[in-house]
Design brief:
This protein is mainly alpha-helical and 317 residues long. 72% of the residues lie in helices and 0% in strands.
């Protein structure tokens, strides 16, 4: 369930574009107005506003926002105004091609998306950046981590809820033989099963593994693999079991300890607001006995804080 709050009676995209243009005029930017409009419009409405702005002022709204805003607020807003698939493609391009690569961020996006989302994302990546996503992954990653990402991008997995329990039990035994039962790890078996099976099937595999070997599949992955390869496998497994729980944990890690990983915080908030943020908020409160809004409020400030909290919405706890 999305957390996005849209007014019951909307102004027209043209009037929103005019109001935004007025907010940019004069000394400084009226960020309150910008947030009040863009943080409360869905992706279709934002696209219409951008079209109207270009038609009225012969200027790209994305470019104007990039010159008017700054810091983390700017980074979050520029991702938010993109359409969802373009946003994912942009996040991947930034993660793979910045001076400092963010392989964890790229892995998170790839391994937490559905096969249909990945197919459209690959096409969009090619259209926006003039190269294949698989090429950039091959250039920036290596080893089993690279093999997992390329396999996950390339295999058309089933997306429905049906599961064959006997097939799930068979895969659980295969993973046990490939990992905890032997000396060393057969990574190819892990890559094959994790990249070819549906989320519903992987959740059933995890349950079967626990039942047959009295040990969680997650612990097996942690003991048998490492680094970004381990992170990719865990992302697939955790999203199969509970996407909301997975993203709640990511948000907690982003704000835990000294300093905040604003890149991770922004990435999760802007990509999940229109999908399942209400479920993520519920999981966050359940796991950490604190509301997500309260955590964000304590770790951010200024217009950046206001914008993120506008997307996340007020908690019901």
């Amino acid at each position: 369930m999305a957390s996005l709050s849209v007014p019951p009676v909307l102004t027209s995209p043209r009037n929103d574009a005019i109001a935004l243009h007025r907010a940019f005029r004069g000394f400084g930017c009226d960020s309150t107005t910008v947030i009040s409009i863009l943080a409360h419009r869905d992706s279709t409405q934002r696209a219409l506003i951008m079209q109207e702005y270009r038609a009225l002022y012969r200027q790209d709204l994305y470019h104007r926002l990039s010159t008017e805003l700054s810091g983390h607020h700017k980074k979050a807003m520029l991702l938010w105004v993109l359409d969802p698939v373009g946003r994912d493609a942009t996040i991947l391009n930034q993660a793979l091609n910045s001076e400092i690569t963010d392989l964890r961020g790229a892995t998170e996006v790839i391994c937490s998306r559905t096969p249909s989302q990945l197919q459209v994302m690959k096409q969009t990546y090619r259209a926006l950046f003039g190269c294949y996503l698989e090429h950039d992954i091959t250039e920036r990653t290596y080893g089993d981590h690279q093999k997992l990402l390329l396999a996950y991008l390339g295999v058309p997995r089933y997306e429905g809820p049906q599961v064959d329990p006997s097939a799930a039990a068979y895969d659980a035994r295969e993973l046990y033989r490939a990992g905890e039962r032997r000396l060393g790890t057969n990574e190819r078996t892990f890559i094959r099963i994790f990249s070819e099976r549906s989320w519903a099937h992987m959740a059933s595999v995890a349950a079967a593994y626990q039942h047959m070997f009295t040990r969680s599949l997650e612990k097996a992955v942690k003991s048998e693999t490492s680094g970004n390869f381990e992170f990719g496998l865990l992302t697939i497994l955790r999203c199969a079991q509970s996407p909301a729980g997975y993203f709640a944990k990511l948000l907690h890690k982003a704000m835990k300890g000294l300093g905040t990983s604003d890149t991770a915080l922004i990435r999760v908030v802007v990509t999940r607001t229109e999908i399942d943020m209400q479920y993520i908020k519920a999981e966050y409160h359940k796991k950490y006995k604190r509301s997500l809004a309260d955590a964000i409020h304590s770790e951010t400030s200024g217009n950046y804080r206001t914008f993120l909290l506008s997307l996340v919405g007020r908690d019901r706890y």
